Amino acid sequence: MDINRCRFIPYPASAINAVAFSESSLPGALAKKKQGQVRLAIGRANGDIEIWNPLSGAWHQELIIPGGKDRSVDGLVWITDADEETSDGKVIFGRSRLFSIGYTAAVTEWDLAKAKPRKHASGQHGDIWCIGAQPPLVNNKGVPEPGVRNLVAGTVDGNLVLYSTEDDDLRFVKSLIRTPSKKTKMVSIAFQKRDIVVVGCSNSTICVYDIRNGALLRQMSLGAGVSGGPKSIIVWSVKCLPRGDIVSGDSTGHVCIWDGKTYTQAQRIQSHTQDVLCLAVSANGSQILSGGMDRRTVLYEPKAGHNGRWSKVYHRKYHNHDVKAMASFESPTMSVVVSGGLDASPVVVPLRTASKEYHRQLSHLPQRTNLQSAPKARFILSWWANEIRIWHLLHPARKILDSNETTAVDIRKNRKLLAQILVKGESNITSAAISSDGTLLIASTATSIKAFHLLYDQSGSGQLQIKQVAVDGASGATKVEISPDNQWVCWIEEGEKVMMARVRSSGSTYEISRPYRLSRTSRQIPKNLLLGGLGSYSRKITQLAFSPDSRVLSASDLANFIDIWVLQASGELQNGAHGAGDDEAGDDESSSDSSEDEAEDGEDETWRRPRTEIPRLNRTPVVLTFAPKPQQDDEYTLVVVTTAKDVLMFNPLSGALSEWSRRNPSSRLPEQFRGTRDHVKGIVWQGTRAWIYGVSFVFMFDLSQDLPEEIDLKAKKKSGTKRKRDGTEAGAGGKINKEPTLAPQEIKAATGPDGSEWADVEMADADDQKSVGASSGFEDDDDDDSDGEELQRLREEQATNGEDAGKEAARAKWWHTYQYRPILGIVPLWSELPPKSMKRQLEGIIPPLEVALVERPEWELDLPPRYFASGEYER
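The chain above was modelled as a monomer; its predicted structure follows.
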């Protein structure tokens, strides 16, 4: 495989301004079941909202709700209703609702299933700077009970305002407090009790209010500012401990502890050299964390033998810039704090196991890559915000000559930016797709779908002409896909509606017919789950894939279901298939499976569901793709990779696992693959070889060969057993002082007839690579704009003329590297075929492959300068 390293393709990362868990803690017997309903929301400066599933420490980014023009998310808060028990003894989990603010006068509620705003509300007041959710009603046993939970917000002009969420609504109620001076800003907010709110202000005060009558209960002063600085102290963050004490962080770098009964200052700790911007507390009130402009994350615990006194335990610099937001979550199996800031990467810090477990930095790149390619045209499509860019890689990274010599391509002249397209509207791009020949481009936002016909002049000026193509009956989409034969366009409306439209071309024009909706299979999802928690969010489709011949379509959702449709002649039901509107009766009221439209009259082919279904998976699919279809084979192979690193191969028409999957369960996958914490982002095919990549790794599995039963030979020799991940981890990184893992640059390959022969592969030594099946690639490094180091890759071991076919068994079964990081995406490019003199005679030969690998290192982010106590800025 030849690799073009493309760091020139941009993906601007945005600062994290807010983080919030839908539950702060999960005690009790239902904690294990309810943990599947917990989500983490991350708000960014560009208006994006990311939804993460903790997955007991696996941390899967399920959804990104794109922002829009001049939008930002500066505060997030969840309201989760109390659980209810039905007459038959089942528990309906409390419904979770997400709200945001963005330094405007509006509060927005978000519909996660449709990935767009649900409601907006605003009042006669200034921009909202902070927002808090009213705690739930609790009984004498401390168990939450059903009751209305309102929102209280503080504004830039000194108002404290009330918003009601009653009756599934969101509306402005009234202004609770109006300060005499409009110069006083309400910066931070926290609830001490259900009706008592604590507000941090910009005038060196912390105010305590009763929201029932708007009475000011107490005003606490922090005194004057530091000498030579601003006269007023800004209270950037306030939190309340379970017993009622108040914690504040301010612009002087102090963390203050206030007595919750007398409202007097009990302690003042100088733990930061600059402003303290955020705080987090544990569920039992035994730990406090603070983050600030000095990049520090500081942990505090009570002093032994000193009632009410706290001490700093340690501080770490997990971030490369200001730490702006924190949120904590605790359950019997997890105890973490997630923080974020200007460096754009969320950091998971262990709380209950502090100093016993490593922290973990999550990627600032999206789980679903913002890249696609047109292999036949050598185009690369990238997008972010409302901008699309089309690049052309003019020549292959390596040219194969008759003399078996290689000639490197000048990387400075190998790329060309063909076009930049700005999609008009207030919403940002949710998805985009380009046809394999580079002639059709589709882009979607939350409100519209745009199509473009691309005309590239290869022989003349090399310019790209763009003509818009009308798309009727489309009202926005969360994902779009073009079939490999350019005959169909599929998109997902409102998160769960599968829409299909025929593409017709005549000469130099394209026409997209009016779409019709494909019916999804009815699923038996318990009503007690659909009525509460996240509701129909689990039926949101996240993956979409066409078969190589464009006659089978697959889609997967967050409920771990996979739907299949087959293209058949109209009026013909092969293999007992269902028509577009032939839904079976089911109890899934929220899945909206009934078809609203049929295929156009006179359409010779239509999409139908096969009678047999693929069983529900145990974990959520993160990659859905079809293996290349051999010409002599009429069967299709659907490959699924899940959040648990399961690699499953199905026959989509029969719903059965393939023989390879039966012989190679997840336990036979390499320990290096199963132990990788980052999720798989995509697969690139090279014959029977699947190149599987994530943000920090690239693996190759030859799916024509069985994997060896025991992969980790070092662990076997040491302990006699395979190394397993410790199940007692708290949800961040692994335990400190665990047995050593592979070095980041180590590469191994399994070879030999039974996969029992192993070899370490050194990236700098081409001869060693070739001994296990490696060959030369090409590295594109923009740092010095010169030819980079060559990547050593797997080479096909079979000879080209008359070599013994028995050597096929000696080719590598799997391979991996950690050299590239972080990876935004890998897309295939059209490669030149070998000359006739190198024509291969053996069946099963691995064809040549060229890909573009896009890296977006964190150090290339455009970050503002950091401020230091001396008053100087460091760039």
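The mean pLDDT is 83.
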